[in-house]
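>> Question from a student workshop board

For tomorrow's exercise we were told to take the sequence and the ligand below, predict the bound structure, and bring the output to class. My setup keeps failing. Could a helper post the expected result so I can at least see what it should look like? The ligand is iron/sulfur cluster.
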Amino acid sequence: MKAPIREIFCSVQGEGPYTGVRQAFVRFAGCNLDCVYCDTPVDRTEQCKVEQGCGTQNFKKIDNPLRGDGVSEIVRKYEGLHSVSLTGGEPLLYTNFIQGFSPGVPLYLESNMSLPERAKEVADMFKYVAGDFKLKAGFNLDNYDEYFDDMVECFKILKNTDERDCFCKIVVLDGFDMQNLLEGVNKIKDYISMIVLQPVTPVDGRDVRPPTVEKMMEIQKTLQDIKETRIMPQSHIMWGAL
Ligand code: SF4
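>> Workshop helper replied:
Here is what the output should look like for this input. Compare the format with yours to find the bug.
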């Protein structure tokens, strides 16, 4: 029922086809993967930071862990929301919390797509799914094949329907393997509305860089024959928003 949450705040979505929509963000602690480009602290904190008013960056701290109904009440105070983004960390680690979460606006799941059994428990609750397909080049653990199969299964469970928009986000790093990319895209193409290629954002202290603009556009051209493909960097970072 309860989940460790690092922060709750109100901003605009900074990635993918819903860039710019006004959202509350519920950022869970904890993640079961380890991506080389991860820019999100995922360790559990004793307290959760709660923004007092949209865009104010004025935070109050409350004790963790938190219940779904309590967080619903907090989020309902933010006005004019398009949806609530469940992000992390990995939100699907906390399906019991999600089942008790009812903020009064649609739910937008941001997931690494590695937990198909958990996805089944809450699939019907999401109106939007921003699902990651992690490339081998950015994957730090040694069970990539297992992740790959689970990722395909997750897209099958959370697939695009008339009631739910499920799209795929792929963070692309220089030196990635095109075969790996094509294999994944071909396996999930029937379950998604589009592909979003996100050039990796260089993170302090990590040796990651995006492919050149020319290379990104070559990849887009190749993928366009399989599925609509857009190239979209992280806009909230350019803007300086949360
Ligand atoms: S899945 Fe997301 S939160 Fe987890 S390590 Fe990768 S980038 Fe970080």
